[in-house]
Amino acid sequence: MLKRVHFNTSWLPFALVAPQIFITVVFFLWPAGQAIFQSFLLEDAFGLSTEFVWFDNFKELWADDAYTDSFSRTAFFSLMVAFLSLSIALVLAGMADRIVKFATTYRTLLIWPYAVAPVLAGALFVFMFDPTLGLVAYALDIFGYDWNHKLNGGEAMALVIMAATWKQISYNFLFFLAAMQSIPKSLLEAAAIDGAGPARRFWTIIFPLITPTTFFLLVVNIVYAFFDTFGIISAVTDGGPAGATNILVYKVYSDGFIGLDLGGSAAQSVVLMAIVIVITIIQFRYIEKKVDY
Amino acid sequence: MAGVNIRNIKKSYGAIEVLHGISVDIEDGEFIVIVGASGCGKSTLLRMVAGLEAITEGEIEIGGRVVNEVEPKDRDIAMVFQNYALYPHMSVYQNMAYGLKLMNLPKDEIQARVDKAADMLQIGEYLKRRPRELSGGQRQRVAMGRAIVREPSVFLFDEPLSNLDAKLRVTMRLEIRALQRRLDVTSLYVTHDQVEAMTLADRLIVLNDGYAEQIDTPLNIYENPASEFVAGFIGSPPMNFFTGDLSTDGKSIEIDSGAKIAVKDYPVGDNVGKPIRIGVRAEKLEPCSRNEAEIILKIAAVETLGSETLAHGFTDDGMAITDMENSIVVKMPGDARPTVGEELPVRVMAGGLHLFDVGTGKRVGG
Amino acid sequence: MIENRPIVTFISHAVIILGIIVIAFPVWITFVAASHDALRMTQSPLPLWPGGHFFENLKEALFVGLDVGGASQPVAFMLLNSFIMAMVIALGKIAISLLSAFAIVYFRFPFRMGFFWMIFITLMLPVEVRILPTFKVVADLGLLDSYAGLTLPLIASATATFMFRQVFLTIPDELLEAARIDGAGPMRFFFDILLPMSRTNIAALFVILFIFGWNQYLWPLLITTDQSLTTVVMGIKQMLEAGEQLLQWNKIMMTTLIAMVPPIIVVISMQKMFVKGLTETDK
Question: To probe the interface with C, which of B49, B73, B80 has the most C CB atoms within 10 Å?
Answer without folding.
Answer: B73
